[in-house]
Amino acid sequence: MLLLWNKVNLHKYINLFSSIISLIISVIILSSTISNKIISLQIGSWAAPFGITIVSDLLSSVMVVITAIIGFSTALYSIGTIDSQREKYLYYPLLQFLLMGINGAFLTGDVFNLYVWFEVMLISSFVLLALGGRREQLEGAIKYVTLNLLSSAIFLAAVGILYGIAGTLNMADLARIIPLIEQKELLTVVSILFMVAFGVKAAIFPLFFWLPASYHTPPVAVSAIFAGLLTKVGVYALIRFFTTIFTHNIEFTHTILLVSATLTMLTGVLGAVAQNDFRKILSFHIISQIGYMILGLALFSPLAIAGAVFYIIHHIIVKTNLFFVSGVVKRLKGSYLLNEVGGVYKFYPIIGLLFLIPALSLAGIPPLSGFWAKFVVIKAGLELNQYFVVGVALLVGILTLFSMTKIWNEVFWKDDPTGNNRNINEVYQSLDKTKKLLIFIPIIFLALITIMIGFYAEPFFTFANNVAAQLLNPKEYINSVLGMR
Amino acid sequence: MTFILAIIVGLLYGAGTFMILRRSLVKVIFGLIFLGHAANLLIFTIGRLTKGSPAFIPIGAETLSEPYADPLPQALILTAIVIGFGVQAFAIILFKRAYQTVGTDDLDKMKSTDELQ
What's the CA gap between A292 and A296, in Å, rounded? Predict the structure, then answer.
């Protein structure tokens, strides 16, 4: 799974090839996790809880599969769009390092190891973000780097205190030991520290300010992979920690998560309304969508967590695809600003259609994937009588639709501001057939997955239910890792 | 010993928080470095200090004799220091590059990414 090539030549093809390989391997892992329960690997044959453990349960393995899908799409899209200057400065190896960090974070079964994978992921994302060195890139990167380093410091401190209390850092061992620990107050403090640390990475309210400041600055392929995967690593860590490990004081911790989730949804979507930049609107929508996932976690019923998992699967694919489309529009019309573009639908109705699928899915229009994701989370909320939160979630859905309609009107529907709808940027004209094809294949691929999740929601939903059941009953996880039968 | 270290950790956290809230890039970097060191020392202190008895098995013996220092926090800190060092070096270069490109080290003036277009 770890893709560690660093050859300077043939970066593109090695990158593409390794993405395909990792896609195949991840599907194999997923299928064996589904049939054989949880797989764990003790690195260096040190038995858990002493060595580092790599664990693949249902949640981890599905995340790895999605990472591989996104990695593959981005690999294709990058070949079509990334300039030779960036390619020369090790763009593709960095992409692979990023994917390695993300996969590692999903698969590890050790808290400190998770920290290490976070750092691998962060340092490659720092470089990818700053590569190119334009003014707004550097400014965005400063905010991104500072806040993420801060969250890493908090994470590290939390790891230290947790070790001081529990005497172990293996997640399964922690899940076993924590109910036995007497100092509940101290545990709550540690869990809040973890919540803040992961909250910064997941961009939940009020810790999200680095995201809209930085995500619209790098090239589209980079924005897309960041938007799809990076925040979701934070969400994954939150789900893992607050279902498997910290369940000693649900009333306190999950209430904080609930309030935060509600505010995250609202601020994200309201922030998007004010924006005029295609990618900034999408960035703010990432925040509001993160709110739904955290909402699912905070409600803490099996159905709600299944909803959160479903939401993550749907969101990663849709969001990455929207960023890809924004890149196509930029290439076509030469700008991301909504008031400077227009008329795309008249001559390129296919691009319009390809935008519409993920956009409507994001807003939750049936029968696309977003509808089912929202439906499950909201149904879980209704079952728990959280009417206010459900109301907010529905309102945010409508506002999302409003935002997407705004993009649709401005970019695709209205006439080009120059008055000539055939006004095509020379960047697009200069692209040859293969490059155009490379740009469109990943978009179509991801749109097809969105439609598939929408129309065949049943198996995905059953799967998400199984994930939730596994998360809420950590016994199986503990037994698999610690080797108790 | 634990008491002194606890005070130092507190001071480092205080100084780091103060520095990171400054507007100057250089001070922000110092703040980040302080916070990193504070976290490292915190792990060291909270992993229970044992003076003068490293975790080596004496020649001829089969197991460790009590009391011995827990080697795991030390391993954690070592990893954290290495990672922190790399990341901080990157951050310093990034900040220098930003200073050269933007022409100011005042963070309040670096807000072009947050403005509405």
Answer: 6
